[in-house]
Amino acid sequence: MGESEGAGRPVAPAWLDAALVERALRAGGGGGGGGGGAGADTRVVGVRVEAANAAGDGYVSEMFRVRATLGGAGGAGGERRVVVKGPPAGERFRRLVLQSRTFVAEAQMFAQVVPKMERELEAVAPGRFPPFTARCLLWDTQPTHFLVLEDLAEGGFALAERRTGMDAAHARLALRALARFHAASAALLRREPAAMAAVANFFEQPVREMFAKAARTSLRGTAAAMRRWAPDADADAGRWTALADALARRAPAAFDAFAAATCRVDPGDLAVVLHGDFWLNNMLFRRDAARRPVDVRFVDLQLSHVGAPAADLLYFLYSSLDEETAAAPGAVDALLEEYRGALRDALQLLGLGEEAPTTERLQAAMDSRGAVALVAACCVLPITRCKTERVFDMEASLAAGEGEGEGDAAVEREAHLYCDAEYATTLRRVLPDFERRGWLQEEETKDVYST
C-alpha cells in the first residue's frame, strides 16, 4: 500500500502502487542513486508517495516522489526513490492531455531522442559532458499515461526559486547546457533526419486550442491590468493605454503566431530539437557548498519539436530571469554570447563548426520571432511570478466558456496574476522595447505546424 502526504497537493492515484514501482525498478536497474543493486529480481514491499513539487510548479502533469521499500533477506532490502509523472487530475485538462498523447511524445524524447543526442557528444568528447535529462526507467499508456524517472533530488538537484527568477550564474549554466542540447540535436538530425518523426507535435489539436485559450486570457488580463495602473505609471498615461490596447488586439491570434514562430526554420537557421518549454521550472540545478550552480538537468520535454534556437532563447529570456539580471545593461547580450560561444564550441566538436550562427544571424532570428517573446512575457512570466497560494488554475480556465461575458470573468478570476507588482515592473521595462521592435503589431501567420 502507498501513503500520501502534502496538504493541498495531489493525492496519489490508485494506479501508483508498489507493483508499478517494482516494474519500473526492474526495467531501469534501480532508479539511479540510493545504493544500486536493483534489477530483474527487485521486490517492492511498500511505497510512500508525496507531491514532488509545490502548487504552481507544474501544469500539464502531476508529479509524485515515491520512496519504495525493497524486500530482502531479513527485511534488509533498503529503499529506492523515483519520480512518477502522470496526467493532471482535472477532468477537462486530463482528457485533453491524454488525447494529445503528450506523455507518449515525452517518453519518446526520454527513451530515444535524448540518448541519441548524448551519444553524439560522447562519441567526440568521451566523459566530458553530463547528461541532459533525468533517466527514464519506464513509461507506458496503461493503466494510464505515465513516466517513471530517476529522482534527481538524490543527486542534490533542486529547482530554482520560481518567484524570484533566475540569476546570472544559473542562467549562464542553463544556456551553456541548452547550447550543447541544440548542437547535439543538430548533429543527430544531420545523421538521422527522421529522428523526431515519432514525437508528436504538441501544437496540434486538441491541445493547441487549450493553450490558445489560455494565451488569449493572459494577454487580455495583462492589458486590463495595464489600464488600471496606467494613470500612475507615467506622465504619458495615454502611451500605456495604447500599449494595453495593442496587447488586447494581439490576443486573438497570439498563440497561432507563437506556434508558427517556434516551429519555423528559415533559410540560414540551424535546425535543432527545441526543448519547447524552456523556463526555469523545467530545469533542476546542483549547487556546491557556496550555493553556486555547478550542474543542471532539463525536465518536461512534452513540447519538444524541431525549430530554430531563437525560439528557446526568447522563451527563456522573457520568462525566467530575475529582474536584476534582465534589467542590467548588457546582461542579456552577455548571456546570448555565452550561449553562442558554447554552441559554436559544441558544433565544432561535432564537425559542424561552419553551421554556428553569427551574433547578427542569431539576433535576426530572434527579432523575427517576437510572438515567442510576447507569449513568454505575457503568459508564462505572470505564472512564474505568481504567489504559490494563488496559482493559475488551468482546469477552471478550460471550464470557462468563450462568450464575451465568460471571457471577462476568466480575466477577472486570474487578475491576481497580472496585477502583481513585480510583474508590473517587468512590463514597464519590456513593453516599450516590444513596441520599438514591432512585436506588438498584428501579423499574418502561416500554419506550418498542423498536419
Structure keywords:
single chain; globular; CHK kinase-like domain-containing protein; 2 domains; alpha+beta; 451 residues
Number of helices in the DSSP assignment: 16
Q: Termini separation (Å)?
A: 44 Å
> Count the strands?
11
Secondary-structure element pattern, one letter each:
EHEEEHHEEEHHHHEEEEHHHHHHHHH
Global geometry: globular
Count of domains:
2
Overall radius of gyration = 22 Å
In which range does the helix fraction lie? Answer: 40-55%
Low-confidence regions: 1-8, 30-37, 402-406, 446-451
Task: Compile the SSE list and pairings.
Blueprint: E1 2-5, H1 18-28, E2 44-51, E3 62-70, E4 79-86, H2 91-100, H3 102-124, E5 136-140, E6 146-150, E7 157-159, H4 168-191, H5 207-233, H6 237-250, H7 254-262, E8 272-274, E9 283-287, E10 293-298, E11 305-307, H8 309-317, H9 323-327, H10 331-349, H11 359-367, H12 370-385, H13 394-399, H14 404-413, H15 415-418, H16 421-437
Parallel strand pairs: 1-2
Antiparallel strand pairs: 2-3, 3-4, 4-6, 5-6, 7-9, 8-11, 9-10
Helix pairs in contact: 3-4, 4-10, 5-6, 5-12, 5-14, 7-12, 8-11, 8-12, 12-16
Describe the model:
Helices cover 47% and strands 13% of the residues. The protein starts with a strand and ends in a 14-residue tail after the last helix. The protein is α+β, with helices and mostly antiparallel strands and 451 residues long. It folds into 2 domains: 148 residues, no CATH class; 277 residues. The strands form 3 sheets. A 6-stranded mixed β-sheet has the order 1-2-3-4-6-5. 48% of the residues are buried. The chain has 16 helices and 11 strands. A hairpin with an 8-residue loop joins strand 3 and strand 4. It is globular. Helix 7 packs across helix 12. Pfam families: EcKL. This is CHK kinase-like domain-containing protein. InterPro entries: CHK_kinase-like, EcKL, Kinase-like_dom_sf.
